[in-house]
Write a structure and sequence with these properties.
InterPro entries: At4g27190-like_LRR (IPR057135), LRR_dom_sf (IPR032675), LRR_R13L1-DRL21 (IPR056789). The chain is about 10% helix and about 20% strand. The protein is mainly β. Among the domains are: about 110 residues; about 130 residues, Leucine-rich repeat, LRR (right-handed beta-alpha superhelix), CATH 3.80.10. The protein has a 24-stranded parallel sheet. A six-stranded parallel sheet has the order 1-2-3-4-5-6, with no helix packed on it. About 0% of the residues have low confidence.
Length: about 725
């Protein structure tokens, strides 16, 4: 093994284990292996253990690596670090990022006096070791956790004068004395760029919470500030103060007792503002904009503004009745989500740069912005009242509508310019006026149970020359396309999914849809056949899944005429016992996926050998298939994936030796597969994956397995043990 070889290099200084690129047999590296490693490699300066090795702990012998300067355990399963880590006096970098099970740091960690970088992002830590302020060389400390009784108090931060980058302070509800907060000296940390302050739980002392937040004022160089779970009723004066001219991002989240917003309009560099779950805010008014002048408009740099989960908010006023065109001059994206009482959105405001507008779960909203000349993307979802879009930009190109009771007023005047539209979960939609959308390129209609027609009138559609893609899903009452077909010469993609009553595809597809390159049909059980004339000759990708009647008629498909077809997927049918047999596939096919054919018993060797361009073959979830063809698979394959064949016992008499182009082989969830083929795997094979195949796992054990000699030449072997 690699680690065994490493132990023989006694003077090794750097050991970085990223992934098990060659051999994966055990579930984790045991303490015994690591103990031997640490006792041997005492000259190590840098050590990194990969999450692939499932490290759950370190032996005490880690403390013998006295020269160690860099230690990374990021994304491993380590729960605790041994106290001996505190004796690594030369350690400068300790990375524990995404150690999701880590609950405790060594109690004597203050002894690591040379530590400069400590990354404890995304762990389960709830407190810091005591006297952490002794680590005066710390430049990077990602998180600081305040415990209830023990551990370092917040004043320990005051001794860490060189902190820079990002700092998150957690559990501020555990600060008992507000005077300790000022000792953290955040105001003196000039190199901090991002600061997040987080409270959890609830208190009855809003004044105490406000005093704490006042004392945690950062230096004016700060660029990003997040305040989460603050329990005061007012924000302190420093939030929104114009002296913080470098703030570009501000997030106020879960400050549920605050009844008014600070004057954030005064932050001249602010670009991204999120206000979320401030449950007592009822009105956004002049206080939000602050003291601005005609020379300096409020929110002059803001580009993204998000309001979310404002349950009592019902009205948004402009900052001055005398000037309706000054605020938000650069706002590009406006998101308003889950504000159930909101009735109006800036009715007198002009937003010259707005390009994206999203309104979700605002059932009382009755009007949108009257003058938005540049908006390109609009999303409205879950509104019970009618929302008017008539006065939005004539250049709007993307419209998303969802869970709306009425669509008439929304669609009126919009479809003449819209290029992309998504309508989802709209019970009221019975017909979609595809023939009234001269510029429409991309149409998605999802989850509209009452949709019956793609034309407002029961007549043949005219030319829809701009249409490029049509995606219809979960529309159970849509039976067919308009008579006469769909004259869309530029359409390249057609997808139909879960349309349970759909009986026929557009007529004359071969001539009216000459540019079509992709067709995906999933769970349309009433589809009976392809239209007369067949499919368009330029078709490159075809998927037919869970379309029972259509698959039963596969002998009539004439796919052999599609000389451009390169990708084909077929699946979910109980009637197919042999494949491809009567389904004649074109020799141009490069990728073939066979999935969920419950009664498939054999693969037709002759039909497969005809596929002289086949590069990728996937066989998935065919429980009655017991063997691959005895004569072998197409020699052109470079990728073979065999998944969930519950009764597969043999990979075929001929094996894979003739597959001289094979580069990748995956075998997964084949519990009855007894062994690898008799001959060794082909020399070009570079990656072998075996998962949940108990017989193969045993036979392919390194050096001692009966099939080891057949696979040992493969550069990358991945074997995952059955759980």
């Amino acid at each position: 093994m690699i680690l065994k070889g490493a132990c023989e290099a006694r003077f090794l200084r750097t050991l970085l284990l990223f992934n098990r690129s060659h051999w994966q047999q055990g579930r984790h590296i045991g303490n015994g292996v690591m103990n031997n490693l640490f006792l041997t490699l005492k000259c190590l300066r840098a050590l990194s253990l990969s999450p692939d090795h499932d490290v759950v702990g370190l032996p005490n012998s880690i403390g013998d690596l006295k020269h160690l300067r860099y230690l990374s355990l990021s994304a491993t399963s380590v729960v605790r670090l041994p106290d001996s880590v505190s004796t690594l006096y030369n350690l400068q970098t300790l990375l524990l990022h995404e150690c999701n099970d880590l609950i405790e740091l060594p109690a004597s960690m203050m002894k690591l006096i040379n530590l400069c970088h400590l990354d404890i992002t995304k762990t389960k830590l709830q407190e810091m070791p005591s006297q952490l302020g002794k680590l005066t060389k710390l430049h990077k400390l990602t998180d600081f956790f305040l415990g209830k009784q023990s551990g370092s108090s917040i004043n320990e931060l005051g001794k860490l004068q060189h902190l820079r980058g990002t700092l998150r302070i957690w559990n501020l509800q555990n600060v008992m004395d507000a005077r300790n907060a000022i000792k953290a000296n955040l105001k003196g940390k000039q190199l901090l760029k991002e600061l997040e302050l987080t409270w959890k739980g609830d208190t009855n002392d809003s004044l105490h919470e406000r005093l704490i937040l006042e004392q945690l004022q950062p230096h004016v160089n700060i660029e990003c500030v997040s305040i989460v779970g603050y329990m005061g009723t007012r924000f302190p004066d420093w939030i929104g103060d114009s002296s913080f001219s470098n703030i570009v991002s501000l997030k106020l989240i879960g400050c549920k007792y605050c009844s008014s917003l600070p004057p954030l309009g005064q932050l001249v560099s602010l670009k991204d503002l999120l206000i979320k779950e401030l449950g007592e805010i009822m009105v956004v008014g002049p206080e939000f904009y602050g003291s601005c002048t005609s020379m300096r408009k409020p929110f002059g740099s803001l580009e993204i503004l998000t309001f979310e989960g404002m349950l009592k908010w019902h009205e948004w006023f402009f900052y001055s009745e005398d000037d309706v065109g000054g605020a938000f001059p650069r706002l590009q994206k406006l998101y308003i989500n889950c504000c159930p009482d909101l009735t109006k959105v800036l009715p007198n405001c002009q937003l010259p740069c707005l390009t994206a507008l999203e309104i979700r779960k605002c059932p009382q909203l009755v009007s949108l912005l009257p003058s938005v000349p540049s908006v390109l993307i609009v999303e409205v979802e879950d509104n019970t009242r009618e929302v008017l879009l008539e006065k939005l930009s004539s250049g709007m190109h993307s419209l998303k509508l969802g869970k709306l009771k009425s669509l008439d007023s929304l669609l009126k005047g919009c479809l003449s310019t819209t290029e992309e539209i998504l309508v989802r979960n709209c019970d009221s939609l019975e017909s979609f006026p595809l023939d009234q959308c001269p510029k429409l390129k991309h149409v998605r209609i999802h989850g509209c149970p009452n949709l019956q027609s793609l034309s407002e009138h029961e007549v043949a559609l005219g030319d829809v020359t701009s249409l490029c893609s049509l995606d219809i899903r979960d529309c159970p009452h849509l039976v067919s396309f308009p008579k006469g077909g769909l004259a869309a010469p530029n359409m390249t993609v057609l997808r139909l999914r879960n349309c349970s009553k759909m009986k026929s595809l557009p007529e004359y597809m071969d001539s009216l849809l000459p540019s079509l390159v992709e067709i995906s049909l999933r769970r349309c059980p009433e589809l009976e056949s392809f239209p007369k004339g067949g499919l368009p000759c330029k078709l490159e990708s075809l998927e037919v899944y869970a379309c029972k009647k259509l698959i039963n008629a596969c002998s009539e498909w004439t796919l052999q005429k599609l000389h451009s077809l390169s990708h084909f997927t077929i699946g979910m049918c109980k009637e197919v016992e042999t494949f491809p047999e009567s389904l004649r596939l074109p020799p141009s096919l490069c990728s073939l996926k066979i999935s969920d054919l419950q009664n498939l018993k054999s693969l037709d060797y002759r039909g497969l050998q005809h596929l002289t361009s086949l590069r990728e073959l996937t066989i998935d979830s065919c429980p009655k298939l017991q063997s691959l063809p005895e004569e072998g698979l197409p020699a052109t394959l470079n990728s073979l994936k065999i998944w969930a064949l519950q009764n597969l016992k043999s990979l075929g008499h001929k094996g894979f030796q003739h597959l001289t182009a094979l580069r990748e082989l995956e075998i997964e969830s084949c519990p009855m597969l007894q062994s690898m083929p008799e001959e060794p795997l082909p020399p070009p094979l570079s990656s072998l994956y075996i998962r949940e195949c108990p017989f193969l796992e045993s036979r392919c054990q390194q050096e001692k397995g009966e099939d080891w000699h057949k696979i040992q030449h493969v550069p990358n072997i991945y074997i995952y043990a059955t759980c």
